[in-house]
Amino acid sequence: MHRDITLVFCYPDCKNRPSEASITHKTDENFSNLFRHLEASWTLFGKQKGSLAFSYNQRWLEDSETPHGAAMKDGDIINCVEVLRLTITHPNAPSRIFTVDPADVSVTFSTLFDAYKIASGMEPAHLRFTIHNMQLLGDDRIVETLRTLRESNEDFVITAMPADSRFSLRAVAPTLGDLYLQPSRGTTPEVMLRELKTALHKMDAHWLSKLICSWPEPCSSQNHGEILLNFARYFMTWRDDHTVCGRRQTVDKFIADQVSIIHSLEQLYNDWRAESLAAANLLESAQRGSTSSLQHVIQANAVRRLLRDAKIISILGRLTHAWKTCGIAALSSGPGLPSDLQILRECRDTNLEHQTVQDILEARNVTPGSLEGETAIGETCSHFSSPVYRFPPVDLATKTELRPASFLSDVRKSRREIIQQEWNMIAREAGAAGIEFVNEADDEEVPQGIGTLFPYVERSYIFDVGIPRPTASVGCGCHRKKGCGNVRQCSCQSNLEGSPAYTPKGLFTFNTDSEIIECNNACECPADCTNRVAQFPRRLPVQIFKTLKRGWGVRIPVDLVRGEVIGLYTGLLIRREEADKLSGSRASYCFDLDVNEAPDEEPPENAYSVDAYGCGNWTRFINHSCDPNLQIISVVYDTAPEDNMPYLAFVATKNILAFTELTFDYNPAHQTEFQSKKYREKAHTARKKSKNQTRCLCGASQCRKWLSVAA
Ligand SMILES: C[S@@+](CC[C@H](N)C(=O)[O-])C[C@H]1O[C@@H](n2cnc3c(N)ncnc32)[C@H](O)[C@@H]1O
To answer: Which residue intervals define the domain SET in the entry (predicted)?
Structure first.
């Protein structure tokens, strides 16, 4: 059976210290468990100033006296014991009252809590905590402990009593923040006001929202009306100070929040400006120098970025300004705010502009000479009607609320989101489907070397400096009736041996190794002619995803059928001799367009290569496999075949399930003597040539090939 237990930590000289004899009364097992635990804890505290005493009947308590001389009841204050009384109750367990040494308050609480649990085998349901000395509310450790207890206990009551017991303040959970002022008989409003000021000044009571004052008797003071009014004003002021910008928060917290918001806005603003500046410089140098079409693309991207940035920068600028102004106004007019010294310090720490600091100081009417000391709360309390500044501030131009949280999340996109957005925008302009970067393997956001300045080109070449523009293509004269279905009659398809390159559904027939000349703008046939396939924008969305062993690769989130033309290899069109100078990973994104070349002969003057190292599209991420599911076909439609500038189109060589990695053979054995395309990156079976090579990890059985390490 449980009995009520009172544990008292007394100072050694306490006259009410219970006799040693009472300690020997260990009548029930739970109690002795509890005692053992506490004994251990007490030693743990290592404080010699206290000793442990206990009583489990009411006799000792009854012998004691309350401060007012009445017989002591359960829950009353014991004269000699310093200050704190903790009552833990459980609906099914007897009440426990612990009175503890405030010097060990936090340790003691948790120990007592544990002790209670061990002794009763139950979780305490209610926690009542009485502070008999209001000064303790200024003690950081106690305030911290209260805060912890409050957070972990739904039904938590704090009662604060000033030392002279003239009134008590009660903050009741879960509303946590209502303060009940319960003056005892004889307490005058003057005393109340004084004590309340002291108490509130010391309390970190930002949880306080309401003061309910019940007066036990008519006030004896002659000017009690005025004092009461003062009292109310004082409280309102105090409360306003803690109701900053419409939210219950301490001014310190408010400042910290504002400063961090402004700081992050400024940071963002500066970052965007820096990026934008880089784009502008690029644009300027592109305009000054001899402009290749690569520079044109870069230029176009830079302009696009500048336009977007200009918008963002202006929004950011407005937002930062509004936030600052509103924050400064709130800070500068509120009474009882943190000292100017503190504001100065905060401003300095967060690099707020000098002008901002001046604004605050000016608004607060402070001369620099007076910054030595902190402004006391009492000095500012006369401004009891401080305006409350509502946040978020409103953008006066658009009348919309400026909410940094949502704005920042929108603007502060990850690198992946920014690049993905940019690539999609360009793909969309080219009429192509979406592109997504997916990384479920590690935390790399985007492939190495892909930044905001990487020019994405969905389906055309960028011409290097000095590359002649292609001549116009020549068209067929087929009419709708005859159509281009008859290969022998369509001049565009004259190089094919009898059967067309595409089925009527637009799938590659695999009937030819030759270059495919598609009907085009110069032809008289209609736009839905079956000899037009690769020239249309990509219709399938692609995912550039991080593979486990082969860097980034490509997959398509839908099933593919054999013969589907997926997209074109793009990049910078360079002369062959330039391509020959490339080596290592720099060369591993380069295709030779060698349609009319004979092996072992010098390449003709108009031999070109496509370099996708510094610009290109999603196809540059297609990895090699010895058992590939794609092959490449050469297609011409907007240049003359003699120009030697065909497009390289990727075609599915089998039905491919959605999300299967797309691969092609970097060095196919079946290449004909006159190849139409030759990937510079070779998956070769010769021995490893340099340390910059890696084993082919395509997973095909018997694969013994080597590839270069990608950039
Ligand atoms: C055109 S890139 C392909 C994209 C590349 N994975 C990336 O992350 O940029 C060619 C490079 O990818 C890597 N790679 C491609 N296929 C591979 C394979 N089967 N095994 C190992 N590495 C491969 C090699 O480093 C090669 O030089």
So the answer is: 540-667
Task: Encode pLDDT of 615-626 as tens digits.
Answer: 899 999 999 998
pLDDT for res 528: 86
Residue 589 Cα: closest atom of ligand 1:
1
CB neighbours of 585 closer than 8 A, spacing ≥ 6? 692, 708, 709, 710, 711
Buried b / exposed e across 531-559, counting CB within 10 Å, b at 16+? bbbbbeebeeebbbbbbeebbbbbbbeee
Which tokens go with 144? Answer: 């911290």
- Listing DSSP states for 342-353 in one string gives HHHHHHHHTT--
Instruction: Report CA(505)–ligand 1 centroid distance (Å).
Output: 32
Helix (H, G, I), strand (E, B), or coil: what is residue 666?
coil
> What are residue 511's phi and psi, to 5 degrees?
-90, -5
Ligand 1, atom nearest to 626 Cα: 19
Q: Which ligand 1 atom is the nearest neighbour of the CA of 709?
A: 25
Residue pLDDT, tens place only, 474-500: 889 888 666 788 888 899 998 888 789
Query: Which helix (H) or strand (E) segment is 108 a member of?
Result: helix 105-120
CA distance 190 to 192: 5
DSSP assignment string, 562-622: TT-EEEEE-EEEEEHHHHHH--HHHHTTEEEE-TTPPTTSPPPTT-EEEE-SSSB-GGGGP
The token duo for 508 is 């590659």
Strand runs (DSSP E) across 398-511, as ranges?
400-401, 435-438, 461-463
Among 93, 98, 103, which Cα is nearest to 113's?
98
Residue minimizing CA distance to atom 15 of ligand 1: 623
Where do the DSSP E strands lie in 480-564? 516-517, 542-546, 552-555
User: What number does the ligand 1 atom closest to the CA of 552 have?
Assistant: 8
Q: Is the pLDDT of residue 25 over 80?
A: no
Length of the chain: 711
Higher pLDDT, 494 or 5: 494
Query: Cα of 550 to ligand 1 centre, how many Å?
Result: 5
CB contact set of 541 (below 8 Å; sequence gap of 6+)? 433, 434, 435, 436, 556, 557, 558
Task: Please give the ipTM for the structure prediction.
Answer: 0.99
* Nearest CA, atom 4, ligand 1: 621
Nearest-atom index, ligand 1, CA of 696 = 20
Cβ neighbours, 10 Å, residue 672? 9
Kindly provide the residue ranges of all beta strands, DSSP E only, lying in 275-427, ordered along the sequence.
394-395, 400-401
Of 10-24, 114-128, 233-247, 528-542, where does mean pLDDT reach its minimum? 10-24
Q: Pocket of ligand 1, candidates 623, 632, 701: which has the most ligand atoms within 8 Å of its Cβ, to mutate?
A: 623
pTM score: 0.53
Q: Which residues line ligand 1 (CB under 6 A)?
A: 447, 550-553, 588-589, 620-621, 623-625, 681, 694, 696-698, 707-710
* CA 533 to ligand 1 center in whole angstroms: 28
568: Cβ–Cβ under 8 A, 6 or more apart, which residues? 459, 534, 617, 619, 635, 647, 648, 649, 650
